[in-house]
Amino acid sequence: MFGLKDLSTSELLELASRFQLDGTPASAEPFGNGNVNDTFLLTTVSGHRYTLQRINHDVFKDPVSLMENFARVTSHLAQKHADGQTTLQTLVLVPSQDGSSYLTGEHGNYWRVTEYVPDGLSLEVPQSREHAYEAARAFGDFQYQLSDLPGDPLIETIPDFHNTESRYRAFVHAVEQDVCGRAGESAGLISFAKENEHLAGLIRYADFPTRTVHNDTKLNNVLLHEQTGKGICVVDLDTAMPGCALHDFADLVRTAACSSEEDEPDVSRIHFLPDRFSALVEGYLAGVHDMLEPREIEHLAVSPQVITYELSLRFLTDFLQGDTYFKVKRPGHNFERARAQFQLLRSMQEHASAMEDMVSASLASGAC
User: Fold this and answer.
1) pLDDT > 90? residue 358
2) Strand pairing partners for 241?
């Protein structure tokens, strides 16, 4: 898929004008730091703001089904909010001029527009225990509110997305092929990955209840109110589909209970934060209410190790294959990401017993 440099501002504004906006689009600026899609902040002459996104169809092979999922999820959550069943807002799709939830542009690209969410704060690392609690409560509530989503199950926008065993096999294949000659410099990471292969089979999707989940619960995918710190909206819904609740909880822990961002080049700065983990457990259990089954609860403490291991494998695999999936900002970026995540995994393993105790303490206090 061609990059940002291939579209001028005037071309972006022309695309934006094909949606039912409040006013003529006046500006379009790159927005956010997503690893997959291209996002722009639109402003119209009337001052109304929107987000314009290009869906990465190299990653999401069926953008039409993805947008059907997106529309179903947001419509359901909007009704829950209107009925007073949740305090959380949801993203609001802006239809194209012909009434569709998306439009197609040149080069096979798919575009959508959503209303901009005001007063939202997107964090890479929580600035307080309360931020961690609110983010977890928001993602838990997201799962809970979608537990009665009517109709057929959502389409899997990326099949086997959280199949850790499949990710491990892809990693081994990448090592064996070594198409870019990078295995030698990655020897230490490769060795650690193989030593922890047992994590790949610890949480199999088929062994747990199927739920409608977010599947990409990085901390920056929930907006917190910039003044109160309360959770206001879950964003980035492209991977919302059937899945395992544990993966959502675990991926939030990976980003919100870590002392640094996920691509920190200095591994000495990377530590697991037990106090943040405790807040995340409390917030998540409060958000999901009584939805979880005993088997899910039993695996809460270990699930962050599994998802951190999985993403480490994905970053390392992408590095070995020539950086074809994740956007990179510099040479060796995916290597740095993999190294950082493996360091976080080591730190989690050192706190494994304490994590079990914190889950038990939250349950005993009636957090859910």
Assistant:
1) yes
2) 213
pLDDT tens track for 10-20: 999 999 999 99
Angle (CA) 121-236-86 rounded to 5° is 70
CA atoms within 13 A on the CB side of 278: 13
Residues 112 and 138 in one domain: no
Statement: residue 25 has pLDDT above 50: yes
The whole-angstrom separation of Cα 346 and Cα 366 is 30
Domain hosting 36: range is 4-116
Tell whether 122 is covered by a domain.
Answer: no
32 and 69 part of one domain:
yes
Sorted by sequence, the CB contacts under 8 Å of residue 362 that are 6+ apart come out as: 278, 281, 282, 285, 368
Q: What is the pLDDT of residues 280-295, one digit of tens each?
A: 999 999 999 999 999 9
The DSSP bridge partners found for residue 231 are: 224
CA–CA dist 51, 305 (Å, integer): 34
**124 within a domain of the structure (yes/no):** no
CATH number of the structural domain spanning residue 92: 3.30.200.20
Cα–Cα dist 136/282, whole Å: 8
